[in-house]
Amino acid sequence: MFSIFKKKSPVDKLQKKYDQLMKEAHSLSTVNRAASDQKYALADEVNKEIDALIQQSK
After folding, report:
1. How is the chain split into domains, by residue range?
2. Is this model's pTM higher than 0.90 or not?
């Protein structure tokens, strides 16, 4: 009910950032392939951070 007051976990924040970067990479893929590859590389780094946080929390 009061989910607006709930704080997001670091994994949730990184997941949102990852989703945004993947969306940008997809939209750039038809216009500028080099920029799309850079966004994809950034998204991959964020995904590795997510995996590290998940492994750390286990």
Report:
1. 7-57
2. no
Contacts of 39 (CB under 8 A, 6+ apart): 21, 22, 24, 25, 28
Q: Say which DSSP state 3 is in.
A: G
Give the tens place of pLDDT for each residue, 3-41: 677 788 889 999 999 999 999 999 999 999 999 999 999
- What lies within 8 Å, CB to CB, of 35 at 6+ separation is 28
Which residue carries 């216009």 as its tokens? 31
The number of residues making up the chain comes to: 58
Closest CA to 18 of 28, 10, 30: 10
